[in-house]
Amino acid sequence: MKSTANILAVYLLGSVLLNCTSANKDGETQVAANTSVKEVKINNPIITDKFTADPAALVSDNTVYLYVGHDEAPNDFNFYRMNEWLVYSSTDMVNWTEHPVPLKTTDFEWSKGDAWAAQVVERNGRFYWYVTVEHGSIQGKAIGVAVSDSPVGPFKDALGKALITNDMTTEHTQITWDDIDPTVYIDDDGQAYLYWGNTACYWVKLKDNMIELDGEIHSVELPNFTEAPWIHKRGDWYYLSYAYQFPEKTAYAMSKSITGPWEYKGILNELAGNSNTNHQAIIEFKDQWYFIYHTGGIQPNGGSFRRSVCIDKLHYNPDGTMKRVVMTSEGIQ
Question: For the residues of 25-38, what is the DSSP string, one character each?
Answer without folding.
Answer: HHHHHHHHHHPPPP
